[in-house]
Design brief:
Helix 1 packs across helix 2 (16-24) and helix 10 crosses helix 11 (238-250). The longest helix is centred in the C-terminal third of the chain and has 17 residues, at 284-300. The protein has 329 residues and is α/β, with parallel strands linked by helices. The strands form 2 sheets. Strands 2-1-3-4-5-11 form a 6-stranded parallel β-sheet, sandwiched between helices. Strands 7-6-8-9-10-12 form a 6-stranded mixed β-sheet, with helices on both faces. The protein has 13 helices and 12 strands.
């Protein structure tokens, strides 16, 4: 049977509370007594019960991760990396899916928040005031969303989008389409960044959408791309890009001969598609470590100003981009 704290107290000749203080807050116990308690604990092989300690301190040693769509292949590597990062620091990570619906997100937060010490919320659908209120009650880190007074990991696509625009410009493309998969999300920063980058490189940009960020969106968008006589497409994410590739092939259009296609995320889909997908990479390990470290820090200390941490992006050129078809130049 496991050695109890009472047995350590008896062996050291002190009270149970003194053993607890000596092991958990040693500065409150004099050196001689502390050494006696530690020696007794080591001799008996005593290991404190972390669950009991967490209960006393009102902590769960668990973190929550709320994502918009668990079927999107972008998220499993993120979840796994966050889980590993949290585990190394003594935390369990609980994950839930809001299905990209505000009502479901509210309901899930209400249920999960009682079981965790803090929440990471990815691409929240909630109004800013709701997020600010939530962050006032418990540690919260937002990813891909901004709200006043709420800590954030900002995934900046600025560099990756600029590189994509430069890449397409170098291949002679002039008429491009952006397939907007932002749905009815409050944050429109992605489309603004894309417009600014393409304008800066002198590229004509036709925006279609917004739709949901799903494979079916790309299937729907492909004939619209051809109708606009565009030679290049930037999709909201890799999943949408895969839908575009699928339907362009069905319509007899060659990629990249007739149309070049660029995704965003650099999921496993990008490297296994035929041809392989040119995409803007977001490093899941960096996002995971930044978000988990920031949240754990907030569970111990809440700074006066909410910290914002930035993660960058870069273009990964592959097989779906090439020279614009000659008649379009």
């Amino acid at each position: 049977m496991a050695v109890t704290i009472g047995e350590v107290a008896k062996a050291a000749g002190v009270s149970v509370s003194t053993v607890s203080r000596a092991l958990n807050t040693p500065d409150l116990v004099n050196a001689v007594t502390r050494q006696r308690v530690v020696a007794a604990a080591e001799k008996l092989g005593y290991s404190p019960n972390p669950a009991a300690r967490s209960l006393r301190e009102g902590r769960t040693e668990s973190l929550g991760l709320l994502i918009p769509d668990i079927t999107n292949p972008f998220f499993p590597p993120i979840f796994k990396a966050m889980q590993e990062r949290a585990k190394r620091q003594g935390y369990t990570l609980l994950v839930a899916d809001s299905d990209e619906r505000e009502a479901d997100e509210l309901e899930t937060i209400a249920a999960v928040s009682k079981k965790v010490d803090g929440l990471i919320i990815w691409a929240s659908m909630l109004p800013e005031e709701r997020l600010t209120e939530l962050a006032a009650r418990m540690p919260v880190v937002l990813v891909n969303r901004q709200a006043d007074g709420v800590s954030e990991v900002h995934v900046s696509l600025t560099d990756g989008i600029a590189q994509a625009a430069e890449h397409l410009k170098a291949y002679g493309h002039q008429r491009c389409v952006f397939v907007d998969g932002n749905g009815n999300r409050p944050d429109q920063s992605r489309s603004k960044s894309i417009r600014a980058a393409f304008d800066a490189h002198g590229l004509s940009l036709i925006e279609i959408g917004p739709y949901e960020p799903r494979f079916e969106t790309g299937v729907h968008a492909a004939p619209l791309v051809l109708a606009h006589e565009a030679t290049a497409v930037l999709a909201h994410n890799d999943l949408v890009a895969m839908g575009v590739l699928h339907q362009l092939a069905a319509l007899g259009a060659s990629v990249p001969g007739d149309v070049s296609v660029v995704g965003i995320d650099d999921t496993i889909l990008a490297s296994v598609s035929t041809p392989s997908l040119t995409t803007i990479r977001i490093d899941p390990d960096e996002v995971a470590s930044r978000a988990v470290d920031l949240l754990i820090g907030l569970t111990h200390e809440r700074p006066a100003e909410a910290p914002v941490v930035q993660v960058g992006s870069r273009l990964i050129p592959r097989g779906t981009t090439g020279p614009a078809r000659r008649e379009s130049r």
